[in-house]
Design a protein that fits this description.
The strands form eight sheets. The protein has a six-stranded mixed β-sheet, with no helix packed on it. The protein folds into four domains: 4-18 and 167-309, Molybdenum Cofactor Biosythetic Enzyme, Chain A (3-Layer(aba) Sandwich), CATH 3.40.980; 20-42 and 132-165, Molybdopterin biosynthesis moea protein, domain 2; 48-127, Molybdopterin biosynthesis moeA protein, domain 3, CATH 2.170.190.11; 319-387, MoeA, C-terminal, domain IV (Beta-clip). It has seven helices and 28 strands. It is 19% helix and 31% strand. The two termini are 32 Å apart. By secondary structure, the chain is of the alpha/beta class. The protein has helices at 4-13, 148-156, 195-205, 219-232, 250-256, 291-309, 359-363, and strands spanning 20-24, 37-38, 48-49, 53-56, 63-70, 84-88, 100-103, 107-110, 113-116, 126-127, 138-140, 161-165, 170-175, 179-180, 191-192, 211-215, 235-239, 260-264, 268-269, 275-279, 282-287, 319-324, 328-329, 335-343, 346-349, 366-370, 376-377, 382-387.
């Protein structure tokens, strides 16, 4: 068995950024740029009014002749002489000869004349051309995560497509003779299969999707299902069948298919029988069959690897140190992952910590990492906490 730290390092060392693709900006949300982007335009592309008011020249006194109007979207044809002004609206193009916009609240209008009732300085209420970015300047660094603001900024610059890291194709395989699909009659000795629903939901909540496969505890069927998934996917997640029981066929099937065993078994609870392997550029995670163990391993290991494939530099879950609300004791030989709830700088260990129990994950917003080598924590001791995605 290896330590949690070594398992994480081995996964990182064996995870590469994925292939790239050109995407419409309508589809680019939650992707990562695979290229630097230089601005193709000045933004704003002209001197622009920041508010509704009157465009004028500040050295022409306080009285002006009103000679026209410009609203947003108009190509201004005006050129102001001394003592002239135009009515202008937010986003409108500043005419030649104007060096400020007097906001309408400080202006008295009478017919085609206006009087400025307060002093106004040059460049007041003007967004100068290129204020946000100049043509040719770096707008985005390679590796930028595209959130809603980034997508809007791409559109602001007139861009329609960007080169991004492609989302990996993922397959989830659930193994076990005991599994019954929800909605079917539950026969004696059977349980409802939940892991594929759970893992697909976890993937979808973090911007991914997956194909679902199930297989009974049969060697040939297990091997054939894994082979099919490897051909169709970049990442394969298996649940169950990776332990040492007489009907656990996953490891044997992976070996026969030529999957390189990077590690098998980690000094942790839950999820000790965790497997990670590679075949060429394909990644395989064999997760425990117990649902809470499988989900814990997904967040600790799989989540980061998928984000690394996507090119995200912040691929790991965010970590905090928080005060523990109650004491905790364990064996020093294992790292414990504890479903927990954090609030107001403190973290509470939730009940139902069994690897088979999902109920505590309903309330959990974090996982406490009680590291190997330590036995006991007291109230208010600081613990490392992994913040779960919303």
């Amino acid at each position: 068995m290896i330590s949690v730290k070594e398992a994480i390092e081995r996964i990182k060392d064996n995870t590469n950024k994925g292939r790239t693709q050109s995407l419409s900006i309508n589809d680019a949300l939650n992707h990562v740029l695979a290229e630097d982007i230089l601005s193709p335009i000045n933004m704003p592309p002209f001197n622009q009014s920041a508010m509704d008011g009157y465009a004028l020249h500040t050295h022409s006194g306080s009285e002006y002749d009103l000679i026209g109007e410009t609203k947003a979207g108009d190509a201004s044809a005006y050129s102001l002489n001394s003592g002239q002004a135009i009515r202008i609206f937010t986003g409108g193009m500043i005419p030649k000869g104007a060096d400020a916009v007097a906001k309408q609240e400080i202006v008295t209008k009478s017919g085609q004349k206006i009087v400025i009732n307060e002093a106004i300085s040059a460049q007041a209420n003007i967004r100068p051309m290129g204020e946000q970015i100049k043509q040719g300047d770096l707008a985005f660094n390679k590796g930028t995560f595209l959130n809603a603001g980034a997508v809007g900024y791409l559109a602001t610059l007139g861009l329609t497509h960007v080169e991004v890291y492609r989302r990996p194709q993922i397959s989830i395989i659930a193994t076990g003779n005991e599994l019954t699909k929800p909605g079917q009659t539950l026969e004696s000795g059977k349980i409802y299969e939940s892991n594929t629903f759970m893992l697909k939901a976890a993937l979808q909540s973090t911007g991914f999707d997956a194909k679902i496969l199930t297989v009974h505890d049969d060697y040939a069927a297990t091997r054939n299902t894994i082979e099919k998934a490897l051909k169709a996917s970049d990442v394969v997640l298996l649940t169950g069948g990776i332990s040492v029981g007489d009907y656990d066929f996953v490891e044997e099937a992976l070996n026969e298919l030529g999957v390189q065993n990077i590690f098998y078994k980690v000094k942790q609870k839950p999820g000790k029988p965790l497997y990670f392997g590679k075949k060429e550029d394909k990644m395989i995670f064999a997760l425990p069959g117990n649902p809470a163990a499988a989900l814990s391993c997904f967040y600790v290991y799989v989540f980061s690897a998928l984000n690394q494939i996507m090119g995200r530099e912040d691929s790991d879950l965010r970590t905090l140190k928080l005060k523990l609300k109650a004491p905790y004791k364990k064996s020093p030989n294992l790292t414990h992952f504890l479903k927990a709830y954090m609030h107001d700088g403190e973290v509470e260990i939730l009940p139902a910590q069994s690897s088979a129990m999902l109920s505590s994950f309903i309330r959990a917003n974090c996982i406490i990492v009680a590291e190997e080598g330590k036995e006991e924590w007291n109230i208010d001791d600081a613990v490392d906490v992994l913040i779960l995605p919303n």
